[in-house]
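Structural prep section.
Before we set up the soaks we want a predicted structure of the protein with zinc ion in place, mainly to decide which crystallisation condition to try first. Input record follows.
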Amino acid sequence: MNDGWPLPSEHAEPYAEPFWEGANRGVLRLQYCTDCGKHQFFPRPWCQYCSAEALEWVDAEGKGRVYSYTVVRRAVTLPAFQEALPYVVGYVDLKEGPRICTLFADCDPSEIESDIHVEVTFKRVNDDLSLPVFRPAMSKP
Ligand SMILES: [Zn+2]
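Run finished without errors. Recording the tokens verbatim:
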């Protein structure tokens, strides 16, 4: 258990290692396709738009807007999350384009609304794993 965040242990595919390495340094990283010029998330061995393997890792600004969310108040299927209740999960549309599924943190669940500006922060799960989560933005873009 980690501060009410009983998350699974790290299991990263080799092509996703730069994402987790960045998260451990407090940097949200995305793949960028040098063929079509689009960012993607989640990590893949090829571009989801043009299938090219010409991907490089770039640092994201870590800013976006809430696309959708839900407040979880009952740990019906995952009793291990009982201690974390209530928590907020949802989607953030990053400035770079990708939509990322995430948890929201460092705020009361009532502060999360669709379309508000949010920024990434990192939740330390254990010595080897930090998880990118989002909170309401301190400053607007
Ligand atoms: Zn591409």
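Observations: The two ends are 35 Å apart (CA to CA).
Flagged for discussion at group meeting.
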